[in-house]
Amino acid sequence: MDKENLKILAQNLANPQGEKGIEIGEMMNATNIGMTLESIKTLLIEDDEAILEIGHGNAAHVKSILNKAQNIKYTGIDISETMHTEAKRLNEKFKNQAEFVLYEGNQFPFKDKTFDKIFTVNTVYFWENPVEYLNEIYRVLKDNGTFVLTFGQRDFMETLPFTQFDFTLYNTDQMEETVSKSHFKRMKVSEKEEEIKSKTGNETIKRKYTVLTIKK
Fold first, then answer.
1. Any idea what DSSP says for residue 28?
2. 7, 148, 174, 188: most buried, per Cβ within 10 A?
3. Measuring CA to CA, how many Å separate 120 from each of 58, 78, 94, 127, 151?
4. Could you tell me the pLDDT band of residue 49, with boundaries at 50, 70 and 90?
5. 44 to each of 37, 70, 145, 160, how far by Cα in Å?
6. Do 155 and 109 meet the contact criterion of CB atoms below 8 Å apart?
């Protein structure tokens, strides 16, 4: 890919738009599914819980969450109008259990202590003010709740040609330090590796990523 196409890919990974955005949403779901399912597993979802996902993409994985326990209420929030519309379309049959909210990217339109579990996969690169954003997550999480933050490790992400455009990258230590500056008090670290298909070609690459389980 030339520089201009890499830039367009980077912009659509941050905020998918239009027809190209739908196509990239499908690709993101396919390439991120391992990280997403690992994050869902780490949440240890129980009956009657309210779950928030930040940056849901096309949300083709919502069924995997609703199947984890009885009477789950899922809320997905995203800045992309394209992904918001696509997620609602793909999850029409779950509309009584799954709700999708469009927002501006910084403050959540939810009351304090709304959610039992919150998770986000591959969004941290685009947070403008990470500590403030973590405190906003803290605000909407119940006192005994769990927040799972999953991201590709810096050393791996730097090998991807599109991350040179407006991605802020973290290694595990840097992310732990960032979280420690927020209101959150406890975290557990799990580092993982998986083989995935490249976003820019057909080759298989080894992705190293981190799952942080964070508590108040």
1. H
2. 148
3. 14, 11, 20, 12, 8
4. very high
5. 12, 13, 11, 31
6. no
Residue 60's contacts (CB-CB under 8 Å, 6 or more residues apart) are: 26, 29, 90
Instruction: Give one word for 46, left, alpha or beta, with left for phi > 0 and alpha for psi -120 to 50.
Output: beta
Measured distance CA(114)–CA(101) in Å, rounded? 14
Is 75:115 a contact under the CB 8 Å cutoff?
A: yes
* Location of structure tokens 């738009």: 17
Q: What is the DSSP code string of 154-192? A: HHHHTTSGGGGTT-----HHHHHHHHHTSS--EEEEEEE
**Tokens found for residue 11:** 């912009």
Q: Which residue has the higher pLDDT, 30 or 170?
A: 170
Residue 199 has pLDDT above 80, yes or no: no
CA 116 to chain centroid: 17
User: Cβ-count burial of 83 within 10 angstroms (0-12 exposed, 13-18 middle, 19+ buried)?
Assistant: buried
Length reported for the chain: 216
pTM exceeding 0.85: yes
| Integer Cα distance of 134 and 74 in angstroms | 20
Task: Find how far residue 130's CA is from the centre of its chain.
Answer: 14
Q: Cβ of 1: how many Cβ atoms within 10 Å?
A: 13
How many angstroms separate the first and last alpha carbons of the chain? 43
Whether 123 shows a pLDDT value over 90: the answer reads: yes
Q: For the chain, what is the mean pLDDT?
A: 92
